[in-house]
Write a structure and sequence with these properties.
The chain is mostly helical and 67 residues long. The chain is built from two helices and no strands. The chain is elongated, with a radius of gyration of 14 Å.
Length: 67
């Protein structure tokens, strides 16, 4: 186990597929690379920030609630 990396990763993942303009995708990938981050890392951060803004609470992974 790699400490510091796996300890902060969530247990499970789900795929999210989006359609985006090819020019925006290319620029997004370039900007991510300049920050030494993958597009997935940036999108996960954006989603987490959005959840925190909308719920008014810090994100804390836990069991998935159905319904």
């Amino acid at each position: 186990m790699i400490f510091g990396i796996l300890a902060t990763m969530e247990e499970r993942t789900a795929r999210l597929t989006i359609l985006v303009d090819p020019r925006k995708k290319a620029l997004f990938e370039k900007l991510c690379a300049e920050e030494d981050q993958t597009p997935s890392q940036v999108v996960r951060r954006l989603i987490r920030d959005y959840i925190e803004k909308r719920t008014g609470k810090p994100w804390a992974p836990g069991p998935l609630k159905k319904g």
